[in-house]
Specification:
- The chain is α/β, with parallel strands linked by helices and 404 residues long.
- The protein has three domains: 219 residues, 3-Layer(aba) Sandwich (Isopropylmalate Dehydrogenase); 126 residues, Isopropylmalate Dehydrogenase (3-Layer(aba) Sandwich), CATH 3.40.718; 38 residues, no CATH class.
- A ten-stranded mixed sheet has the order 2-1-3-14-13-4-5-12-10-11, with helices on both faces. Strands 6-9 form a two-stranded antiparallel ribbon. Strands 7-8 form a two-stranded antiparallel ribbon.
- Helix 1 packs parallel to helix 14, helix 3 packs parallel to helix 5 and helix 12 crosses helix 14.
- The structure holds NADP nicotinamide-adenine-dinucleotide phosphate and magnesium ion.
- Magnesium ion binds next to helix 9.
- Magnesium ion (MG) binds next to helix 9.
């Protein structure tokens, strides 16, 4: 069989620890035997970020703006322990944070559904994709402890010196106070990323806030979404046969629990933080969760939702066998390859991406899986494979599906 050709490169962002080991195995076993893999490679491993003073992260984000599609391996976000472990010059920022800020993007997280790994909510049959707004609100709030009786106000001072004041509370005793903000530009980018991604994946989009109580703050979110939808996306949604649906956050939560899934749920920053943990644990496992960063002008960066699986890496370094689940990382590759195929009108590449995903699902549904899945599957007597063994089992199914 001739290898599938790629006309435009994908931006490849290599990473750290166990996921870096899986990364190479995936390329060797599942990609390069079948594809003329065309990537522009950036090593975001912590050692190389340190050598380049983190310039490599910035370069990889700029390359994503140039080519439109990236695939990223999990990376270490340095903390005090990592400063010593890697002898770092500085406590470099989270690469995901840097890339997200440069692309002004929104992260969409969705579970990978297979028979035998059943969600805890019985009615959920299709994935629920959570989109979390990544700027402001309580995460950029200013807080104060109020020591005793006194007046608290919000004060805005315009550039010309004019002041607007709102009373927060006339305190009769001690208490607490918090000032939150958001930016219309950031909300607009969030809205556009959500509408683009809904069109892209042909799924309905839900959005919810507490606008009945928060008549200016949350209502602004609601209004911005509605304006952008009406002006830029209404016709496209109609043509695609999908809907945009706004409701109150309490109503959304109730509906989600009774739904069968199959939609995107856009959340404000705090709601997204909390609800994504609820949805991902109810669907089973972080190792079966994909994640894609979508910029408002339609650039895509695919990755796994989990981290570098440090504990498994130390076992691997000691020469012990590991059983690390590579599915989310493989789906990051298939997501990026499919998007590249769509943009380049490369049918062979799109088909390959579909078959690669089918091969993963088939392998698990046949009862061959890594330890994390074996612990929670409803399949009787699953075969527990090593990290490598699992990838080889997927390769066997992929070869069969490709008919080679
Ligand atoms: P983690 O790498 O997600 O792993 C936490 C635990 O979850 C693992 O020890 C393992 O449990 C289980 N697990 C996660 N992924 C798995 C997989 N693919 N297969 C099997 N089990 C899996 O989180 P962490 O240990 O908190 O973080 C490690 C490093 O990752 C940190 O340096 C952090 O900065 C980084 N991180 C990066 C990203 C990113 O780049 N997107 C995201 C999160 C964290 P058992 O040990 O019980 O088997
Ligand atoms: Mg959280």
């Amino acid at each position: 069989m001739d290898k599938i050709k790629m006309t435009t490169p994908i931006v490849e962002m290599d990473g750290d620890e166990m996921t870096r080991i899986l990364w190479q195995m995936i390329k060797d076993e599942l990609l390069t035997p079948f594809l003329e893999l065309n990537t522009e490679y950036y090593d975001l491993g912590l050692a190389h970020r340190n050598e380049t003073n983190d310039q490599v992260t910035v370069d990889s984000a700029n390359a994503t703006k140039k080519y439109g599609v990236a695939v990223k391996c999990a990376t270490i976000t340095p903390n005090a322990a990592r400063m010593t472990e890697y002898d770092l010059k500085e406590m470099w920022k989270s690469p995901n944070g840097t890339i997200r800020a440069m692309l002004d993007g929104t992260v969409f997280r969705a579970p990978i559904i297979v028979k035998g790994i059943e969600p805890n909510v019985k009615t959920w049959r299709k994935p629920i994709t959570i989109a979390r707004h990544a700027y402001g609100d309580v995460y950029k709030a200013t807080e104060m402890k109020v020591p005793g009786p006194g007046r608290c106000e919000l004060v805005y001072t315009g550039e010309d010196g004019t002041e607007v004041r709102e009373l927060i509370h006339e305190f009769a005793g001690p208490g607490v106070v918090q000032g939150q903000h958001n930016l219309c530009g950031s909300i607009e980018s969030f809205a556009r990323s959500c509408f683009h991604y809904a069109l892209d994946t042909k799924q309905d989009l839900w959005f919810a806030t507490k606008d009945t109580i928060s008549k200016k703050y949350d209502h602004t979110f609601k209004d911005i979404f509605q304006e952008i939808f009406d002006m830029e996306f209404k016709d496209k949604f109609e043509a695609a046969g999908i809907t945009y649906f706004y409701t109150l956050i309490d109503d959304a939560v109730a509906r989600v629990m009774k739904s069968e899934g199959g939609y995107i749920w856009a959340c404000k920053n705090y709601d997204g933080d909390v609800m994504s943990d609820m949805v991902s644990s109810a669907f089973g496992s972080l190792a079966m969760m994909t994640s894609v960063l979508v910029s408002p002008d339609g650039h895509y960066e695919y990755e796994a939702a989990h981290g570098t699986v440090q504990r498994h890496y130390y076992k691997h370094l000691k020469g012990e066998e590991t059983s690390t689940n590579s599915v989310a990382t493989i789906f990051a590759w298939s997501g990026a390859l499919r998007k590249r195929g769509e943009l380049d009108e490369n049918e062979a590449l799109k088909t390959f991406a579909d078959l690669l995903e089918q091969a993963c699902i088939k392998t698990i549904e046949e009862g061959q899986m890594t330890k994390d899945l074996a612990l929670m599957t409803t399949i009787q007597n699953p075969v527990v494979l090593s990290s490598e063994g699992f990838i080889r089992a997927i390769r066997a199914n992929l070869e069969e599906l490709l008919g080679s």
